[in-house]
Prior knowledge:
This protein has twelve helices and 13 strands. Strands 8, 9, 10, 11, 12 and 13 form a six-stranded antiparallel sheet that branches. By secondary structure, the protein is α+β, with helices and mostly antiparallel strands. Among the domains are: 5-114, Rossmann fold (3-Layer(aba) Sandwich), CATH 3.40.50.20; 143-207, 2-Layer Sandwich (Dna Ligase, domain 1). The chain is globular. The protein has helices at residues 22-26, 43-55, 70-80, 99-109, 118-125, 127-136, 184-198, 246-250, 255-259, 270-286, 321-328, 333-345, and strands at 5-11, 59-65, 84-87, 144-147, 162-166, 180-181, 202-206, 211-219, 224-225, 229-232, 261-263, 291-299, 305-312. Helix 4 (99-109) packs antiparallel against helix 5 (118-125).
Amino acid sequence: MKKKLKVAITYNEANPDFYIKPAEINKKKLSFTPYFEVDNLTPIEEFELLAERLCENDINAYTINIKDDIDFLLTDLKKNKPDVIFNFIELFKDNARLEMNVVGLLELLGIPYTGAPPISLANCQNKVLAKRILNTFGIKTPKFALIKKLAGRYNHGLEYPLIVKPAFEDASVGIDNNSIVENFKQLKARIKYVLDNFLQPALVEEYIEGRELNVAVLGDKNPKSLPISEIDFTAMPDHLYNIVSYQAKWDPQHEAYHKTIPSCPAKLDTKIEKKANEIAVKAFHAMGCRDYARVDMRLNEQNELYVLEVNPNPDLTEAAGFMRSAEAAGMSYENTLKKIINLAWARRNKILK
């Protein structure tokens, strides 16, 4: 009988009691008509459900919430001896830049784990470095300037409108409607906001107006792109910019959450679709991604494609994001998860022992 793989679904939620159930949030009056029904599960419950679904499909899965405690993680791994770690750790001690350090520990332990290695996580999180790497491979990104301190003027040489982001965050953290600036006064105020609130440089980019495309990539040495998903901004009201802000991704109370509507597969010209898929796979390799990633792009009116972000280990919520593209490719939720696990398991003889 074939052995069932034992998989530790590992994540870090240091304060699980702080979660408010989405259903409770949804009881508040909204000033707009919601497009999406809000799931009644917290992220922790999502991980538990993921484990249940894997257990129903010949994977011996269990969850570990490390709660900012490395000793707890080490103790569990020594006791339970999982074959594969399904890595969902995105930060440590509330610091996203320590994500790579935790993965570095997994590397040293010699246990196969899913997703990107430390260097890839570090390079993708450093937005300026990511741009330079992508540009070296001939992949277009928006023109930018890195601002490390407040000044009376900035000789950035960029054309307004601009978008201002924290330089070392992901998941759209620090990006909201005020991130788009139309003049120097707004630019200075937003740079100050980033410097004061995130304690890191501000990345200032030329804002690319156009269609937003998400290209999911699945695989390791020979990755393949999945059907392209588009974020449809048609319903976005005039007072909100056409961006996927933090609120659009994570806040069911916010209008942007319900007005950024995904469409998959995206309706694209065949040549543009082919080019976007080629760029996504090229970016996947350039940034050293592994197993699964999502490459976010903008397509402007001149049909030029600009890579905005390369996202290693993107969200795997069922029927959303990456999984939407997998479903469009004819892959079930469970089979996609198992594919990612098997990619990690296949590396077991190539890692540190």
